[in-house]
Amino acid sequence: MEGTDVLTEEQVTAHADEVVADWRASAAATGPADRAAAEAGVRLAYRRAGLAEPERVLWARSPREGVALVRALTDAGPSVREAVRSRPWAAARARLHEELGPAGWSAHWSATGGRLWETTEALVERIRRGLLDDLAGDGDRREAAAVRLVLLDAVLGQHDAPWLAAFSTEGAPLDGLALVARNAGWWWPLEEAAVVCERPVALHRDEAGRLDHGDGPALAFADGFALYAWRGMPVKAAFLAELAGLTPERIRTEENAELRRVMLEYYGYERYLADSGARPLHTDATGTLWRIDLDGDEPVVMVEVLNSTPEPDGTRRTYWLRVPPQTRTAREGVAWTFGLHPDVYAPVRET
Fold it and tell me: Among 179, 199, 219, which residue terminates a domain?
C-alpha cells in the first residue's frame, strides 16, 4: 500500500477471504487442464528445487492412469518429490512460523488453509481409497502395498490448495507448484520424467462439501475412474441406479442399515410414511408424531408440523422434523428441535 506497509484488520481479513476463495475454486475445478501452463509449472518447480528439468512430461486422464503410468516407467529414474515438493514447503512453513510465532501461525492457518483443509483432505482420502479398491481390490497385499507407495509419491496438484492458500506463491520457492495446482490435478515428479493428471470431468458435493450425487458418479475422470457417493457415504453405481425404482418393501428388506438410511433419504420420509401405511403415535396442538420401525436399526421418529403462516395461495406447508427415537409426544419432539424441555416450550408466535 502506498505510504504504509501496515494493513488494517479488515484488509487482512478481506485478503484472506480472497485467497481462500481463489484456492477453493482451484481445488474444485473440473474440465481439461491447461497443459501448457501446467507443464511450465512442472519445469519451474524442478528448477526451484535445483534440479534439471524433466526430459518428458507425460499426461494421464486420471490418478488411476497416473499410477499405472508411473509403475510402467522403467527409465525415468527415482522420485524427486522430496526435493520438488517437501523441502520447499517445509522451508516456506518454517519462515512463516518464525515470522508469526506459534500463536500467529495458528491464527494465520485458521484464516487461510484451515478453511479448506477438512473437505479437501476428505476428498483426497476418498480418491486414495477408491484407487486402492480399483487397482488392488482383489486382496493382493503386495499389489496394495505397491499402489500405496506410488500414491505417497504423488504431488496433489489442485488438491494441495489448503497449503498453498497459507503461503505466498509469488516467486520462489512455491510458484512452480502453485502454477501446476491452478492448472492440473495430481502429478508425480521423477528424475527424468513427470507424470501429470487431468482434472476431473465432474464433481458433485453437498452443502457440507461431501461427495454427493444421486444420478451418477459424484466424482468422475475422463478414463472412467469414478467415485459414487450419497451425502458423503461411498456407494456402488448399481445401488444408485436402483434408487429411482425404490418401493417401501425394498427399503424394508435392505439388510444394510446405512444403505437403508440412504434409501429413506432419497425416497423421502413423508412419502415413505404415506406409502408404507404408517400410523401416528401421538397428536397434539404442535403436530403429529410418526414412527417407522426398521429391522436391525433404530426407528425413524418424525414430527409432522403444519406451518401456522399460510402460503400466498392460502395453503399451509407441512414440515417433517426428525427427532430422537425415544420421543413420545409431538410437543416433546418440537421442543427438542429448539433445545427445550417440553414443559417450557411455549412459543409466543409460531411461524
Answer: 199
